[in-house]
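If it is no trouble, can you show me the amino acids of a protein and the tokens describing how it folds?
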Amino acid sequence: TPPMIYLILSGVSAFFGLLSGIGPTTLLRPLLDAVSPLAPASIASLCTMTTLCAALVTAFFALNRALPLHPDELLLLAVGAALGGMLGDLAGARFFMMVTRESAMLLQNALLFTLIALPSLYFGPLNHTIAPMNLSRLLSFPVALLVGLLGSFLSFGAEPLALTLYFLLFEADGNEGAFAALTISLFAMVGKLIVLLIRERLVLPDAGVLLWLLPGAVIGALLALWPAIQRRRNNLSVILLRLSLFTSLLNIAAAALR
């Protein structure tokens, strides 16, 4: 795969993912599975770094605004997500050791498809069927733990799932859900990266590809956060979620045919 492909995919995924609110690597993960010859474990580590990089850029600009969540709730989210990220990396490492490349791609894309399809269903056909609840925000810890674990296992941040759960369980508004999803994604990837570096003895597999992925993620994130573009953005989330679903389905079909 030409290195420039990684730069383009990372930049496009971060730009449209952050602009629509579905996360910088919700689209990147299935695309890399489709076009990259790298092993699933390598793709997972690369997506981890890309997600973390885009989340750091977003968090830097978010600090200039008032926090929509209470500091105690943010602490619960951070601790739960970091713990989930660590557990998700350990589960992913065990998973990759037990299955072949095709089986890993098939099973991970099937789970990724499910996690993306559920928010699409909830905010689509089921939007007026299941009423949001107003539970205690203390439950944000297990929510962050679960989302962090799944996001770490699949290395895509799981922003759509975090947004859905926060709206469904806590009747959160858009700003609260988006900030919670950002916090979970950031600390889940930090937890995953810590365990990953310990397992790999401070060496990342295929680290040369990061020289193309990370600049793409930074450029895409900066463009998406540019005020002039923010004012003109359209509702892209439905289109991108469907594209992610379609790409995951292609990966599932390709892995099954092999």
In short: Residues 11 and 219 are 6 Å apart (CA to CA). The longest helix spans residues 71-98.
